[in-house]
Amino acid sequence: MDFGMEVGIFLIYTACLMLIYFFGKWLLIPLKIILKVLVNSVLGGVALVILHLLCNNFEIFLPVNIITAVIAGLLGIPGVIGILIFFNV
């Protein structure tokens, strides 16, 4: 092997590593968004159920149905607070 071939192999390895880095970083952005939405949905659902159980003791109306579950899933804790305000004002 001559020196020119070794430099060519090094440049190919470098280019491949750079492509893997850029495409990997590009693919992680949607994964972060999906993870954030998933955590928000779980927190909203848990808050909705806990508040529903607590509100029954104090005679405050907080329905748990498919619409309120979707709102709590999409908006999280602020969505649950909005549902609570909407149904009790």
Average residue pLDDT: 84
Question: What share of the residues lie within helices?
Answer: over 70%
* Count of separate DSSP helical elements: 3
Strand portion: under 5%
Radius of gyration: 25 Å
Query: What series of H and E elements makes up the topology?
Result: HHH
Q: Could you say how many structural domains there are in total?
A: 1
* Major beta sheet summary: none
Which residues sit in consecutive blocks of at least 5 with pLDDT less than 50? none
Beta strand count: 0
Cα distance spanning the termini = 81 Å
Q: What structural class is derived from the secondary structure elements?
A: mainly alpha
What overall geometry do the principal axes of the alpha carbons give?
A: rod-shaped
Architecture overview:
- By secondary structure, this protein is mainly α.
- It has one domain (about 5-89).
- About 85% of the residues lie in helices and about 0% in strands.
- It has helices spanning about 5-55, 65-75, 75-89.
- The model has no long low-confidence stretch (mean pLDDT about 85).
Supply the key terms:
single chain, 89 residues, mainly alpha, 0% strand
Would you summarize the structure shown here?
It is built from 3 helices and no strands.
Itemize the secondary structure elements and their pairings.
Elements: H1 3-57, H2 66-75, H3 77-88
Helix pairs in contact: 1-2, 1-3, 2-3
